[in-house]
């Protein structure tokens, strides 16, 4: 049998193989350009020279077969000090290609799902075999001419068929007993995919019975049930399509995600682009959610080095590698989302949530219960409130605790977060002393910048003609933009007594913790 005949036979059996071809030879080498060999997971056919060079090439081929390495050219140095240890005095390039076996689909059960699944799989290039223990259902006339139809017991018939990583077994028999026999045969044959068409109760019974008979739970966890991707629709044809979609996704190690550049099905709108809301945005964006930030026209963003809301002043900001940019309208926001940029819209009421039918709305205004922000449970599929002022199960779906302490970041799906006590977070014994506040109404003009070190008594800016002084030594961590009209008592910034050990360009631990809580709620409720 020639090597190519051997390769065809392996493919017909559904067995993947690596084809090794010498594509370059320089100097003395044991074989010539064009010579080939085949390597499977446990066998070799032919030779490219024997010895150490072939041994290394076989190892490399099996790494390709396992998916640990990609196909391609490998160079083997056949000289003293080279990577083979051989002393022929030459060099050899070997191209290692991964040849997949014939995709096989075995269907246990010749009923209505099988009748729809078999022709669909045939069209996608699968070699299909249908097994049924009832003669009336093992009827070749019900299936395409290319489909093999076997009348026999499920376990026995499937056990006699060759299986491997390219084999998918879809089990859709008429009873749990037959399902169990078919699933067992598929697991014993180490099929690449095993799917069971069954209700949750029936599937539990089948898997529990197999576990009692000695099958390990780690093996049973490979059984896909409920079977298929959630594509919607009903009836045998829709079920068949969902099964084949999952089988194909699994065979190609794909995600099943939409290939479109921009998928708005999971769009999140975050009301409030301050530092805490930005921690939420960062977590969600890093997890793959498209996020739009909405803000008032002139937000009083204090820790603006880590706040996407600052984009309304600076046009574009970058927060730990994530870019935020001001968007003039929804069309521009969508354009930015397509480029993996976080759009920041002037939209105090977050009307974009309704306009784009957003899946999730997060209220990160941080009103602390001082006023009703207008966020309601019906605004999106999932609505999350941050801090006091929201009741989970009533006006929002979930509330995230924002008060520092043991409960920080905890998600409540019923009830409320702790009430705001008016105390700023403590740093080295300082609370209110850390905060810079407006001494009067007027226009704010800072004289320091975020990241500057200050000493108690330093003037850090003015409101009108009144100076604003820091009460403690430390590093200026937050500062609202200059030129804003502020009211007496408005928070203008904060000083961190830990000094230069704090990086004001890094999202705080608190903000990341809150982001984790929101991400939990979204993943659980979406």
How large, in whole angstroms, is the Cα Rg?
32 Å
| Rounded mean pLDDT score | 92
How much of the residues is beta strand, in percent? 15-25%
- Per CATH, which architecture of the largest domain? 3-Layer(aba) Sandwich
Shape: elongated
Number of alpha- plus pi-helical segments: 13
Q: Alpha-carbon distance between the termini?
A: 57 Å
The tally of structural domains comes to 4
CATH class category label of the largest domain: Alpha Beta
Helix coverage percent? 25-40%
Reported for the largest beta sheet, the result is:
9 strands, mixed
Structure description:
With 526 residues, this protein is an alpha/beta fold. The protein has 13 helices and 28 strands. A hairpin with a 4-residue loop joins strand 2 (36-39) and strand 3. Helix 3 (112-123) packs across helix 8 (236-251), helix 5 (176-188) crosses helix 6 (200-212) and helix 9 packs across helix 13. The longest helix has 17 residues, at 509-525. It is elongated, with a radius of gyration of 32 Å. It starts with a helix and ends with a helix. The model has no long low-confidence stretch (mean pLDDT 92). Pfam families: XdhC_C (PF13478), XdhC_CoxI (PF02625). Residues 11-67 form the XdhC- CoxI domain.
Offer a concise description of the structure:
This protein is of the alpha/beta class. The mean pLDDT is 92. Residues 105-247 form the XdhC Rossmann domain.
